[in-house]
Specification:
The protein is built from 15 helices and 13 strands. It has 375 residues and is an alpha/beta fold. It folds into 2 domains: 169 residues, Rossmann fold; 184 residues, Glycogen Phosphorylase B (Rossmann fold), CATH 3.40.50. Helix 10 links the parallel strand 12 and strand 13. Helix 7 crosses helix 13. The longest helix is centred in the N-terminal third of the chain and has 17 residues.
Amino acid sequence: MGRIKVNLICGPHPLFQELINCPPKNVEYDVNIVPNTSYNNFFARRIKGIISKIQGILMVPRMIHSSSDSELIHSTRGVLITNKKPWIVDFEMASSFTGLNWNSLKNPLTKWWIKRYLSSPYCKKIIPYSNAAKKNLLDWIDCSKFKDKLEVVHPAYHTTKIKRKPSEKITISFICRTSPDPLDFYTKGGHDLLKAFEILNKRYENIYLKIKGSIPKHLQKNLKNVTFTEENFSREKFCEEFLYKPDIYVQPTLVDTFAIAIIEAMSTGLPVVATDMFAMSEIITEGYNGFLIKTNIHWDRYVKFDPKYKQFNKDATKYHPEMIKDLVKKLSLLIEDKNLRKKMGQNAFKTVKTGKFSIRERNKKLRKIYDEALR
C-alpha cells in the first residue's frame, strides 16, 4: 500500500478535523480549509445571503478549482471540482451541491450542471454520509449515469472513555446554537424538550437539564432545575460540561441530517434520545444504544413544496404533542433505570469505537476508494 497525497477541501468542522487528525494509512492530506460564515455575525449572514441569491440566479452548483499538486482531490460538503484530475466528493444531503439552496436544486439547469460534473470521468466516487443522504440525492437528481459511483461512508469520531461517578443526581444534556435568532432553538426541538422536562420535573426530584445555546427570553421564565449558558467554552471545557459529566444526551431536532453531536455524545458513552428522522435510525438502534422519538415534522418532506422553509419554520415553532409524549416516555425509562443507562451507554461507546462510525471502518473504506480512484 503506497503513500498517496490527497488534497482535502473542507470546512472548519469537527467532522473534518477528525479526518485530518486520523487519516487513512499512508495518506498525506494537503488541506484547504474553506471558512464558514458565522451565523452570529450580521454582515457575514448578509454576505452569505447575497452569495446564495447570486448562485440561485445563475443556477449553478457549488464549484471550486484546486491549485494543489496532489494526486487526488477529496472535496467535502458537495463542492464540485473543475480540475481535470481524479476527484471524489462527499455530501450530507442533495442540497449540499447548491449551498443548501433547495429552490436552486429544483431548477432543471442546476440539475443539468450537477449531473454533468458527477458524470465526468474525473469524478471517481460520490460519497453520501448516510443511506438517507443517498436516497435524498436519488430523489432529487437523475443518477442513472453515475449510480455506480455512489458509496456510503459514515463519518467517524474518536472515543473518550469516561468513568462517570455514581450519583443520585441525573443530568440531561442538550446542545443548540448560540444565536440571536430564536428559530434555531425551536428547530432543534428545544421548546418541546422544555415542555417534556416540565412534566418530568413533577415526577422526579433528582433530574437536571443543562443547555448549551440560546433560549428565547419568553421561555426562560419559571425554569426549574434547568441551567443554560451562551458562553464560548474551550473545546475541553465544552466536552467536560456537556459530554463527560451528564448522564443522558437528548437531541429532539427537526432539522438535522447527520447529527455529529449525537456521535460525539455516544463516543463518550452517553445513551442518546433523538428524533426519528433522516439518518438518525442509522445512528441509533432503538433500545440498544438509545431511543428514537416520533415526529410528524420532517424537513425533507417540506422542502419539496416549501424550499425556502417558510411553512416549515412556522410549524417548527409550535409545540408537538407526539414528540413531547414520546420524550417523556423514553427519558423516564432512562431516568428510572441506572442499569439501562449504563448498558445503553456502553453500547453507544461500542458503536463508535468498533462499529460503522469507527475511525478504523471509515479509514478502511476511504483508503480503498482512494486507491480505486487512482487506478
